[in-house]
Write a structure and sequence with these properties.
By secondary structure, the chain is of the alpha+beta class. The protein has a single domain, classed as Alpha-Beta Complex (Peptide Deformylase). It is built from four helices and nine strands; from the N terminus they run βαββαβββββααβ. It has a five-stranded antiparallel β-sheet with strand order 2-3-4-7-8, with helices on both faces. Strands 1-9 form a two-stranded parallel ribbon. A hairpin with a 2-residue loop joins β5 and β6. The longest helix has 15 residues. The chain is globular, with a radius of gyration of 16 Å.
Length: 196
């Protein structure tokens, strides 16, 4: 089932999400619905807060990125197989010199900006069978993970912009929160009264 994606301005996007247990209700169908929603919106990642649930869960399938001719062979290879479910994830270590890449977000349509992030991370997480994993990610795979991880920490990529950039996109963000935006997928807007 394709779910509406929560738009910028909704308080759920600012909550620090809670850990879940294997007994979380209908977890398998929730994961399937999140994946369907992500694919329908042509995204490479989707976090539970983006569908209105403040839980520590996100899905990633970065394989569409692997087609990008501008990427290094190493990044294309890493992204080709970077598809997973991340439950209760943690970033254990971040290293290297921050590098810039242009990011966007399904909750903030039509806004893309350059964001600095560390290039290499070590993570821990549970998969959908609640098996624990420790993994190292680098390059774009690390970046996609960090973007989704920020969502479960109540952080948006726009928070990482300079104050000048924030001022330049302020009106766009206000319009998104009011529903004055067209997206190619279902969205839920925080500042639209029911029945209008």
């Amino acid at each position: 089932m394709i779910l509406p994606i929560v738009a910028y301005g909704d308080p759920v996007l600012r909550k620090i999400a809670s850990d879940i247990t294997p007994s979380y209700p209908d977890l398998k169908s929730l994961i399937t619905n999140m994946q369907e929603t992500m694919y329908n919106a042509s995204g490479v990642g989707l976090a539970a807060p983006q569908i209105g649930k403040a839980i520590r869960l996100f899905v990633i399938d970065a394989s569409p990125f692997a087609e990008d001719e501008d990427l290094s062979e190493k990044d294309r290879k890493a992204l080709k197989n970077f598809k997973n479910v991340f439950i209760n994830p943690k970033i254990i270590n971040e290293e290297g010199e921050e590098w810039v890449f242009n990011e966007g977000c399904l909750s903030i349509p039509d806004v893309r900006e350059d964001v600095f992030r560390k290039p290499k991370i070590t993570i821990e997480y549970f998969d959908e069978e609640f098996k624990k994993h420790t993994q190292e990610l680098d390059g774009l795979a690390a970046r996609v993970f960090q973007h989704e991880y920020d969502h479960i920490e109540g952080i948006l990529f726009t928070d990482k912009l300079s104050s000048l950039k924030k001022r330049l996109i302020k009106k766009k963000l206000e319009n998104i929160s009011k529903g004055k935006i067209r997206a190619d997928y279902r969205m839920r807007f925080p500042n639209i009264k029911k029945g209008k």
